[in-house]
Every structure is written in C-alpha cells, then in structure tokens.
Amino acid sequence: MTDSEKELFEFYTKGSKKYLSNMAVDNVIFGYHEKELKVLLVLSQHFPVWMLPGGYIKSSESAEDATARVARERTGLDNLFLQQFKVFSTPGRNLDPHVTPEVLSKLWGQKVDQSHWMFGPVISISFYTLTEFSKVNTDSSYPGEKCQWWDIGSLPEMFQDHKQIISEALKALRLHIYHYPIGYELLPEKFTLPEIRALYESILGKQLDDRNFTRKLMSLNLIKKVNEIKTGVGHRPPNLYTFNMDVYRNALEEGIFIF
Amino acid sequence: MTDSEKELFEFYTKGSKKYLSNMAVDNVIFGYHEKELKVLLVLSQHFPVWMLPGGYIKSSESAEDATARVARERTGLDNLFLQQFKVFSTPGRNLDPHVTPEVLSKLWGQKVDQSHWMFGPVISISFYTLTEFSKVNTDSSYPGEKCQWWDIGSLPEMFQDHKQIISEALKALRLHIYHYPIGYELLPEKFTLPEIRALYESILGKQLDDRNFTRKLMSLNLIKKVNEIKTGVGHRPPNLYTFNMDVYRNALEEGIFIF
DNA sequence: GCAATAGTGTCTGTAAGACAGTATATT
DNA sequence: AATATACTGTCTTACAGACACTATTGC
Fold it and tell me: Does residue B42 surpass a pLDDT of 70?
C-alpha cells in the first residue's frame, strides 16, 4: 500500500480526520479527438462500474486542490484548468448498488455496516476541465484501475448520479463557450480551421458556417496563421493556426461574445 | 429552546448526525430600494459581527433545501429563487476572531477546544437570491438576532470571508443579467421605466441609455404598459408597467441577450 | 482529370449605439 | 411660467446570417 492508499484506508475505516467526510469532488474531464467530444471515465479496481475521476478532500486543501490532486493521481494529468460548476446534494444521490456494507466489509477486511458515513449523505462538488486528448496516458493510473475516453453521445452505465453530472457539466460548458475562448486545452498547439470549427460544432451540438466562423475568430484576433501547411491529406492541404495567447488570455479575463 | 435550536445544540456539542459537519450554506440575499442594490445581513445574537444568513445542512435535505429553510427561519423569506454560484473552500477561510474555544465554551456551557470541527475546515456552499425589499420584515427573525439591509457599496466589517462571497455573488449576478431577465423578484408588481432602468444600472454599475433600454425591453416583449400612472411626483407622471410573465418565464428557460 | 476538402468575398437584414426634442405633470 | 422628469423617433454603423465559387493537393 502506498502512503496515499494507507491514508485513505484509515479515513474510511478509522474515521481519520485527514479527509473530510460526507463530501467528495468529481471531475468531468472533457477531451476531443477525431471530431468527437469525449469524457474520461475510470473503472475502479474495487467496483465494476464506470465513474468520474473523483475523490475526497484533505483537511489541508481546497476543493480545487483536491480535484487537481485526484486528476494527477488517477489520470496523470497536471495543470488542469478547473471550473467548478455545480454542487450535487439531493439526498440519496450517492447510493449505488455497487457499494454495499458487504462489499466494503470484504474490501477493507473488517465489518462495515449501514451506519458508515458512505451510506449517509455525500455531496459532490463537481468540476469540469478541458484537456488535450493525447495528454492522457490511459494505461498508467491507479494500480488495477482502468481509465478510458468515452464519446459524449454513448456513455456506459455509470456510478451514482455521474451521468447526470456529465450532462450538467456539458450544459455549463455550452454556456461558457459563448463567453470565453475554448480550444487551447483541447487542441494541439497547431490546428487547422476545420479542426477548431469541428470542435465548436461538437460542443455546441450544431453546425456552424465555415465562412462566418473563420471571420469571427479572425476579427477577434484570437487565432493566427502559422506559415505551415498540413500535407498528405489527399486534397488541398489546410493551413495551420495557433492561438494568440495574449488575446486568448485577455478574453478569458474579460469575456467575449461568440454567437 | 425551540426544537430547532435544541437540534443545533446537540449537533454542535454532541456531534449529532442530524446535520453535516465541515460544511455550511451561505446565502447572499439581494434586494433593491431607492436606486440602491442592497444585501441582507444578520447580526448574530452570539457573535457581534455581521454575517450572511447561513446555516448547516440537515442529513435529510439538499443544500438548496437547507438554504431555503435557513432563509425562512432567519429572515421570514419564503419561495426564494436560489442560485448556487460557488463553493468556498480555501483552508482557513472559516476562521474568525469572533469564534474561539473560549467563546463557544461560554455559549454552550461546556468545555470546547481547538479540536472541535468548527476550527477545522468548513466549506461554504454559496447561493445568491433576489427578493423584493419590502418583503423582508427586519424585526422578526431569530430571537435576539438583528437583520438589516446594507448598501452594496458600503458594507460593514464582516464575518469570515463573507465580504468576498458577496463580491463573487455580485459577479455571478452580473454575468446572469446578460442572459436572463431580472426584476420580477426585485421590483414591486407595477413599476416605472426609470425604476427598472435604475435597477439594471445599479446591478451593472454603469449607465444605460433610456431610449435604447426601453426599446430593448419592449422588443423582447418582456414588459407591458399598465393603464395607470404614478401621480403626485411633482413632474410628468410616469406610466406603470408589469412583466409579461409568460415571456419572462420563457426567457428564464431559454436565455436571452441584453447588451 | 477527378475527387475531396480548404478557403474566402459579398450582400442583406437586423439590431445596437448615438443623439435631442416634445410631453405632462406639479408648483 | 417655470421646473422636473417621462417619453420617444431617426440616423448611422456594425455585425450576424445566408450564400457559392475558386484553390490546391493526391490519386
């Protein structure tokens, strides 16, 4: 057992105060690949069900720190741009048939009953984040744990109310996209116009006019052409672009209007 | 002691599980009166310092329910339109010089020391809400507790990080006002054009052109003229208007764009 | 030459923004 | 009549939305 696992074990079984009980953080990690918006889910080593990469908050850290730490531990991702978008606290939201006193008793090697706080209310402080698809190494993660990208449109059965959390995260992201630039975390450094347009289309769930879209990004001065083209594509090669980071960051601060 | 007070006392002193520890809800209640945006603060009977009307979450209720209940108990307000806008969880945010082991020991009539959870991390799940100024009866509230409206621009010294919470709530409200209609909860049923314009001006913190503002509201069909004027004002009497509630509610659902 | 996709220019309609004069009550 | 505020119409400008043709590569 690693130190971190030992700490958690003591938190679960002995009520250690290193973590806060009755609350958890959950993180909807969005990625983008081959014209599809995806979410990163983990299959726990203990429960055979897909879930959001989440965890508990240490007494010494903020919810944001906890979410960043959990993402690092479970998916190897670092330096994430986290957005806290909602708290889920409907009574009973955290009950799941995969987590029973019997399962926990076996898992922890000691008697656990219904009075454990895990069977009482547990609120979820939920975040979403955007990351480049290729940055995630889906092999390396917790020992015995799998993580995998899933298309937004075809999610598996999920733990607790995690499917609803994803749905709310997507709503929050769609609202955000009208006011803040998006793409820096989701696209490679150099990208083509059709790529960024397809990204916006898959987040918004609607088609955008190529001419108007380009004009908008250019008039905002958000992106600039790189003197490079992407060859070997069997047709006219697209130009590559990058974000104007000063404009991008300013737009994150000040807010913008895109459609 | 009322039942509710007894429950809280047992929660504080005996670790009863009727409430969740290490988390609280806080509510920024905005009101509007005489061209000023205001916030409702309470002066606790126990601590001589102004604070947001907040409280703890019962094990059987959601954070939203808890916030509504607390608002009802402390300010008499009911049926509030609550918006959960942020979680505050920076370590140490909840420490305040007014709350010490000595003070609590005296208050609860028993020895309390630094190990009490109140001196550990307590996260705040924060909401804001809008209400009509006149609906609040600032006399009737918890016995021994005062509540009072304060101008947004001149707040007193406040408990914990509550001033920062108000500042973030105002930011969230300002973002909201661009997308959703506001005013139904803040204005009397019948209001004048200058009144609603002044409301928008005080929330946004900038002046609006009277002609363009009226045109916008009218073209959205959000308000309609009532066949009534407000007399006795020493000059040309203004017409009264009300909201078109079907349009208003639809705009709350669908979202709008105002400037 | 054909297939496939990239890239861009123009027109139109709508609405935001700037601006000032008329209207109607009280005193 | 003077004062104070309510109310509204027009012009200009900017941008969103609709639309179709040319460009460039691989095969």
Answer: yes
